[in-house]
């Protein structure tokens, strides 16, 4: 019997009294405790009738117990489906329906809103609150401390992570045990993680970055985690002297740089600052080095591929680049029309192949075929070039995507909501530079030519009801008509140019 992911990440820690997670109230959870809680949860899943391959969707605050739910899923061969805590009921309803989840775990506060949807789809509901209490914890407490891991092979699914699409419909990226295992092994070695490391963990745990990269690498290396509920500058500053590594999105670094207390002295015990999920401006990279003496290590990844490239640990960490393909991973730049590989220095589609690349989109074979070639190369939708020294630069995106503070926002999803509102003829959503979030959505509306007073506030309320807060356009602007090319296609580049400074002044 074996379960490669469980055996590698968790199995060795049974009974261990080594500290694993310290929360900001100073409470320590040892590795042994962590796997014991996970085992009780796995027994609870079993008691609820969950079997290998079933899906558990969770929309819960970041806590030791919510991380244990992840471990329990791996142990019981159940597919883990974490959801952004900001998603609205309507958004969660789609994921529940699409994934066919058997169990949904959420905060008590969300129960009333979620009940009708869960009843409709026959989904079991359990609660888990930010303080670790809830009905899933109550059930777990009645269970044994040990659970014999369900037999799996590396090709079995470990997680579904939903990622929005250019059509506005979210896709469930299917990640196998091997996808996660191979990437965490590679990153642990490449970034020299070890059991003396202390990671400042301020990212959400419902995405690749905060979950698979941060947590799996810590488990693989025996590194300790300081677990923070969210990114809070003063908590980071307070805890930095005790830590050695920080993983963050660029917004973390720009916010830290605006603090006078953030300097070389405060960071003297740190060995590594890692950035990803969105482009880090070269000027941030340089300013950071001037301020602290540390060079941020920028890497590149995606939900579908985990991490694909990284700047070197020992060699030159080059600003404005995402480094080289990780060991075992292949990248190539191809012509968007022909699919043929381009020469050094030429800009084209970035494609990735390796054990890190996902298995496909859940129940979407056609979508999978469009993006995942038969030879295993995944078309990322990012545009890049490889320079003469082999460094990859992400130049832009083929896909119509906005990245706000590290969260992906697909314009189409917002446009569908805007177009649906009375009085709106059509809309265009574009990404414009934002000093804090890097980029942010701006909504442009064309409205009906009537004498009836048109209220933006009515539309804003509708957006609140339908879409998670981070997807909301920071501003809605009315135009007489949208610029179009001769083919009738909306020229978003013209709009981006026109409004590029709207949030910068
Ligand atoms: C929060 N808000 C955001 C936002 N985060 N709005 C736009 N974009 C975001 N990213 C909303 C809040 O709800 C709030 O609304 C208002 O904006 C201001 O909130 P804040 O307090 O300033 O935000 P904060 O909670 O501090 O969050 C900002 C952040 C956070 C950048 C720290 O968004 C974050 O942790 N981002 C990390 C995302 C991430 O992990 N991405 C990895 C994806 S994996 P209101 O109404 O109160 O004003 C991936 C693969 C890879 O991409 O390569 O890693
Ligand atoms: P997600 O689908 O949330 O996993 O987001 C993946 C996308 O984030 C990629 O396709 C890139 O567009 C972007 N991304 C991740 N890391 C970087 C980086 N270091 N620089 C630029 N873009 C990045």
Can you give keywords for this protein?
single chain; GMP Synthetase, Chain A, domain 3; 505 residues; Rossmann fold; binds malonyl-coenzyme A; nine-stranded mixed β-sheet; alpha/beta; binds adenosine monophosphate
- The shape, in one word, is globular
- The SS-based structural class is alpha/beta
Strand content: 15-25%
pLDDT averaged over residues: 96
Largest sheet: 9 strands, mixed
Poorly predicted runs are none
Q: Can you put this structure into words, describing what you see?
A:
- With 505 residues, the protein is of the alpha/beta class.
- Among the domains are: 4-152, ANL, N-terminal domain (Rossmann fold), CATH 3.40.50; 402-498, GMP Synthetase, Chain A, domain 3.
- The chain is 30% helix and 25% strand.
- Strands 2-1-10-9-11-12-13-14-15 form a nine-stranded mixed beta sheet. Strands 4-3-5-6 form a four-stranded parallel beta sheet, with helices on both faces. A four-stranded antiparallel beta sheet has the order 16-17-19-20, with no helix packed on it.
- Strand 1 (19-23) and strand 2 (28-30) form a beta hairpin.
- Helix 2 (31-47) packs across helix 3 (64-76), helix 4 (89-99) runs parallel beside helix 5 (111-121) and helix 7 crosses helix 8 (209-221).
- The longest helix has 17 residues, at 31-47.
- The mean pLDDT is 96.
- Residues 163, 208, 276-279, 298, 300-303, 322, 380, 382, 394, 397, 403, 408 line the site of adenosine monophosphate.
- Malonyl-coenzyme A (MLC) binds at residues 203-204, 207-210, 230-231, 249, 251, 276-277, 301-303, 404-407, 437, 469-470.
């Amino acid at each position: 019997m074996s379960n490669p992911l469980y055996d590698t990440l968790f199995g060795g820690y049974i009974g261990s009294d080594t500290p694993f997670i310290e929360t900001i109230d100073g409470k320590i959870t040892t590795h042994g405790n962590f796997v014991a809680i996970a085992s009780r949860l796995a027994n609870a899943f079993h008691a609820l009738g969950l079997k290998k391959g079933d899906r558990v969707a969770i929309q819960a605050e970041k806590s030791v117990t919510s991380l244990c739910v992840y471990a329990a899923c791996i142990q019981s061969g159940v597919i883990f489906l974490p959801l952004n805590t900001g998603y609205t009921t309507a958004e969660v309803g789609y994921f529940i329906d699409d994934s066919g989840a058997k169990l949904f775990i959420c905060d008590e506060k969300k129960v009333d809103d979620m009940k009708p949807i869960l009843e409709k789809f026959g989904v079991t509901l359990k609660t888990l609150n930010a303080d670790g209490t809830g009905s899933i914890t109550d059930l777990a407490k009645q269970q044994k401390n040990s659970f014999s891991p369900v037999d799996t092979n590396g090709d079995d699914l470990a997680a579904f992570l939903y990622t929005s699409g250019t059509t506005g419909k979210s896709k469930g990226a299917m990640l196998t045990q091997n996808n996660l295992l191979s990437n965490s092994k590679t990153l642990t070695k490449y970034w020299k993680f070890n059991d003396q490391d202390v990671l400042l963990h301020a990212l959400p745990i419902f995405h690749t970055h905060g979950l698979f990269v941060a947590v799996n690498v810590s488990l693989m290396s025996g590194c300790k985690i300081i677990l923070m509920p969210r990114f809070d500058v003063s908590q980071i500053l307070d805890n930095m002297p005790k830590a050695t590594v920080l993983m963050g999105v660029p917004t973390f670094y720009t916010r830290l740089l605006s603090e006078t207390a953030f300097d070389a002295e405060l960071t003297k015990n740190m060995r590594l600052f890692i950035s990803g999920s969105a482009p880090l401006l070269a000027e941030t990279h340089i300013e950071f080095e001037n301020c602290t003496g540390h060079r941020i290590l920028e890497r590149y990844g995606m939900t579908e591929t985990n991490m694909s490239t990284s700047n070197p640990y020992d060699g030159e960490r080059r600003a404005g680049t995402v480094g080289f393909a990780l060991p075992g991973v292949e990248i190539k730049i191809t012509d968007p029309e022909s699919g043929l590989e381009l020469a050094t220095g030429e800009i084209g589609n970035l494609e990735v192949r390796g054990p890190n690349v996902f298995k496909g989109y859940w129940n979407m074979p056609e979508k999978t075929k469009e993006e995942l070639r038969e030879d295993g190369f995944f078309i990322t939708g990012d545009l890049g070039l490889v320079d003469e020294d082999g460094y990859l630069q992400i130049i832009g995106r083929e896909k119509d995507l906005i990245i706000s503070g590290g969260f992906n926002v697909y314009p189409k999803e917002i446009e569908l909501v805007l177009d649906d509102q009375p009085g709106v003829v059509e809309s265009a959503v574009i990404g414009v530079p934002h000093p804090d979030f890097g980029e942010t959505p701006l909504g442009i509306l064309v409205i009906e030519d009537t004498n009836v007073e048109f209220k933006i506030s009515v539309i804003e309320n509708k957006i609140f009801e339908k879409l998670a807060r981070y997807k909301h356009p920071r501003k809605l602007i009315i135009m007489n008509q949208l610029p179009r090319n001769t083919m009738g296609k909306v020229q978003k580049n013209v709009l981006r140019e026109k409004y590029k400074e709207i949030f910068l002044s």
